[in-house]
Amino acid sequence: MKKSVIALAAAGMLSTFAPQAAQAVDIKIGFLPGVVDPFYQVMQKGVEAAAKDFGVEIVTQIPPTWGVEAQTPLLDALVARGDLDYIITAAVDSQQMIAPLQAASEAGVKIVGVDTFLGDGDYAEGPVTFPMTYIGSDNEAGGAFAAQGLAKAIGNKGKVYINSVTPNIASVELRVKGFKEEMAKHPDIIVIGPDYNDDDLNKATQQTAAVIEQNPDLAGVFGSNVFSAQGAGNAVVNAGLGGHVQVVAYDATKDAIEMMRLGQVSMALAQKPFDMGYLAVAFAVADHAGVTSLPKRLKTGFAIIDATNVDDPNFSKFIYQ
Amino acid sequence: MTDPVLSVRRLTKRFGGLTAVNAIDWDVYSGEVVALLGDNGAGKSTLIKCVSGVHLAEEGEIRFDGKVARFGRPIDARREGIETIYQDLALANNLDVPANIFLGREVKRRYFGGLMKVLDDRAMLKDAQVSLESLDIKFPSLTQPIESLSGGQRQAVAIARAIHWKARLMIMDEPTNNLGVPEQHKVLELIGKLRAQGVPVILITHTLPDVFAVADRIVVMHRGRKVAEKKTTETDTAELVQYMVGALDDFPDHQSAAQ
Amino acid sequence: MATPRASAAPLAADSISTTKRLIIAASRFWPWVFLGLLILFFIVSVPMFGGATFFTLRNSQNILVAITPVLLLGLGQTFVIISAGIDLSVGWVMSLGSVLAALAIRGTFNLGLPLPLAAASGFVAAVAGCMLVGFVNGVIIAKLKVPAFIVTLGTSFIVRGVAFLMSENTTVIGLPPGIRDYGNESLFYFVRGEGGGFYFLSKPDVSGEMLRQLDRILPWPVVITAVVVAIAIFVLRRTQFGRHTYAIGGNQQAALRTGIPVERHIIKLYVLSSATAAIAGFLSTLRYTAGSAVVGDPLLLSSIAAVIIGGVSLFGGAGSIVGTLIGSLIIAVLTTGLVMLNVQAFWQYIVVGVVVILAVLIDQSRDLIVGKSRTGGSQ
Asked: What pLDDT is recorded for position C9?
């Protein structure tokens, strides 16, 4: 709390001496991601960068665990502040968070969805239309990319295993769907799983280890988000199979990239959480300024990182760190 | 003499190879205090537990108020009016005096034609006060948890509970242990009051002065058998000790047939 | 032989002094005081640092809604801990209740039952199914004499597995949309500002700006919880069942000897605990219009913290429902206040942890003053 007093004083002093770096926009935006993890940390950097560029104030609260009972009280409290115009949020459940977020919307706080979505993600024609927009990856396409990469890495035949989070996160489920559909095009590849780890790194490791035990001929593993990929990768390495069992990671964390350098992960799909965060703030600012032609769906892209470009700064800048 | 309240004939209790209670014959009459003496392992506690329903004896017969009694559980004995006060008092320290007196037998009021039963704390408090008054016991507060009472006061609560439920026979196991002298006095006084009300008291104790202070008769046990039964006025400490260590035995041939 | 009647005076003078009795009373009221100070702190600090007002109508209702699951879990837990036991399965039982309720509501509605009956069937399914769990807990604890800690931990894993099984590892969705109103609408409404007013039962037909000014007062989950809390307070304080619960916690041996059917009572306690957890799960299903096998996960420890802060001794024999209510409020006020102060919400864990330890220390020092001896066994 002392920090903010000092900051206020400093800002006060600066404003009398220096010209404004940017026109300060008088809106307050809340940022409520899903949980504490590297992906959302990078997203937060994007949010804060945009906040600085646009001169808006951000109020951030990060749930300590992934679940509606962790996210909803924070949401309600943010709304109760009464001073937020927008909330940028990654809803932790596609169905359960509809009611609380709609209540927030009705209270006058506009919802900008990032990374995950409510209902079916189609806020124009779908069952849920109150959020302003959904900014996130094309998850199904991402899953397909992952499948293509893994298929190539294992020579188009063999057993592969999916380790995922929970069936209740529609965005992650789309990745699994995209992966499976793409793999169906390869008749010599058998898909095992998915197992669900509830976004728990240890569980992901244990589940993958068990599958490795039971399937000595396992050729590849796909981890569908940060913790799934990391955990699955750990299990492969612990079993001494790094480099033999190909691992494809959705979400490029530092650990995943480390493993890539050691030859243990063959491909990592980096989403662009920085973009998501930055664009979310930009959307809010634009909406506040009166822009009405904002799209209800903005697909952010991927950087596909593998051993060939991991040291290329054009690609390595998308690693979550 | 009138009929005994409690009558025990050839009562025998074995635990495996050990005969803890060996063919005990014993009568306890209304309005008397009988002290049950014996060294550790003499079988006093076991005998009392057979009478109060904790154990079931192998042989022998217990008659209570003239009728044969078979107490399978402690609650059966209690229902007949045999109240036992153990060393740990069986009191709930977190409850107050009336709550303890009525523990397990709470007074309720019915509402809505019997659908709802609510504790009648006021009635229980009043009843408790009456009982305590009859024993001339006063507490600083009847609505505080009894954990804040002294040892002697808690003994008084246990005794008051037994009195309240119209005990027909009171069994007390080492009641003055861990009490200061004035409190011991008070407890003995209460025992006297019980006798005055016609309630017979069986007193298990190691404290010989207590025996001479309050008991009318004395029964001594040694290794499961009754070795002496005397009026208090007809014996002294030295002689009692002889009986307790087995140096004296008034009933040398009296034992269970299976021995 | 009887000593003369000199003693109309109280037995022995070493019962505790008035000062000590005051300290004991103070130790019972400190949660209230702490809650009051906490609220005062936020009322003062929030406008200074956050720019908002802390004690608004909306915020007060938010807090009531927020305490609902923790409080319900804490209700049964209070009874159980007073009896010197503990129920570690409540979080997962709540999840099971949520799943059972969702399946029942969806199933019966699709069979043609009108919405209110379908909702009621959800309630029945949740409570009945979870009471079975409580029964199993109680029987193993009471009859087989296995420590409550171990039993409830074990059953919680089984319950969790069953919940996942029944929900097929996903949220149970597809509930009739009307259910959402049961979980989110309220007894009263208040529209702030111009043209506003107070409404009872019927939601005012507002939109746009007026909709923003709409506050929901006493949402249905809060009303239901209030009723359950009132019943719990009554049972614990004014019935034989409550009295015996305290007795068993204070001295289980004594309770046994005075004829209290201890085994049966213990079983009832764990059934009760699972029942309140089931109600929490049912309300969660209404609120989120879905059943979830993980919804109760983060709540077990919070419910135990609320119970301890509220003054229930982990050794049994003491505590109250009102205390648990205060404990739940402290946790919820803390979370809300921190968010409004723009402080990261995880600080609440640190504060709650400190308060819990404080609560236990106060409880211990109280026992020290009284010179309490621990009698009777715990489960």
From this structure: 39
Per DSSP, the residues of C105-133 read: HHHHHHTT--HHHHHHHHHHHHHHHHHHH
DSSP symbol at B26: E
Share of chain A above pLDDT 70, in %: 93
Q: Does A3 touch chain C (CB under 8 A)?
A: no
Spatial separation of the C-alpha atoms in residues C96 and C160, rounded to whole Å: 7
- Cβ <8 Å between B148 and C2: no
pLDDT at C118: 93
Residue with tokens 């209404």: C286
Q: Is the pTM value of this prediction over 0.90?
A: no
Q: Do C292 and A168 touch (CB under 8 A)?
A: yes
Whole-angstrom Cα distance, residue C102 to residue C293?
11
- Count Cα atoms within 13 angstroms, Cβ side, for B9: 8
Share of chain A residues as helix, strand and coil, in percent rounded to the nearest 5: 45, 20, 35
Rounded CA separation A224/C372 (Å) = 57
Residue that is written with structure tokens 């537990």 in the block: B49
Tell me the C-alpha distance between C246 and C240, whole Å: 10
Per-residue DSSP letter, B232: G
CA distances C269 to A131, C82, C148, Å, are 45, 10, 12
Helices H / strands E in chain C, number of each: 14, 3
Amino acid at C92: W
- Phi and psi angles of residue B105, each rounded to the nearest 5 degrees, phi first: -135, 45
Nearest 5 degrees, angle CA C337-CA C341-CA C346?
70
What mean pLDDT comes out for the span A187-211? 91
Instruction: Work out the average pLDDT over B32-40.
Output: 90
The closest alpha carbon to C232, from C66, C76, C82, belongs to: C76
Determine the pLDDT at residue A24. 67
A127 to chain C: nearest residue by CA? C177
Contact partners, residue C78, CB within 8 Å, separation at least 6: C232, C236, C307, C310, C312, C319, C320, C321, C323, C324
Q: Which residues contact C164 (CB under 8 A, 6 or more apart)?
A: C293
- C52 CB-contact burial (10 Å; exposed 0-12 / middle 13-18 / buried 19+): middle
pLDDT grade, residue C90 (50/70/90)?
very high
Tokens of C113: 């039952």
Please check whether residue A221 is in contact with residue A245, taking contact to mean a CB–CB distance below 8 angstroms.
yes
Q: In one letter, which amino acid is B108? A: K
Q: What interface predicted TM-score (ipTM) does this complex get?
A: 0.84
- Residue range C278-302: average pLDDT? 92
The average confidence (pLDDT) of chain B is: 85
Tokens representing residue B42 in the block: 């003499």
Read off the pLDDT band of B69 (50, 70, 90): confident
Token reading at C49: 């640092």
Residue B125 has phi, psi (to 5 degrees) of -65, -45
pLDDT category of residue A175 using cuts at 50, 70 and 90: very high
Backbone angles phi, psi at C44, to 5 degrees: -80, -45
Residue C12 banded pLDDT, cuts 50, 70, 90:
very low
- Those chains having 3 or more beta-carbon pairs within 8 angstroms of chain C are A, B
Across the interface, whether the CB atoms of C238 and B119 are under 8 A apart is answered yes
Backbone angles phi, psi at C69, to 5 degrees: -65, -45
Quote the tokens at residue A270: 């980096």
> What is the rounded CA–CA span in Å between residue B70 and residue A136?
80
Q: Which chain C residues have a beta carbon less than 8 Å from that of B185?
A: 3
* Chain B and chain A touch, per 3+ beta carbon pairs within 8 A: no
Strand partners, A269: A250, A304
With CA atoms as reference, the chain A residue closest to C212 would be A107
**Average pLDDT for chain A:** 87
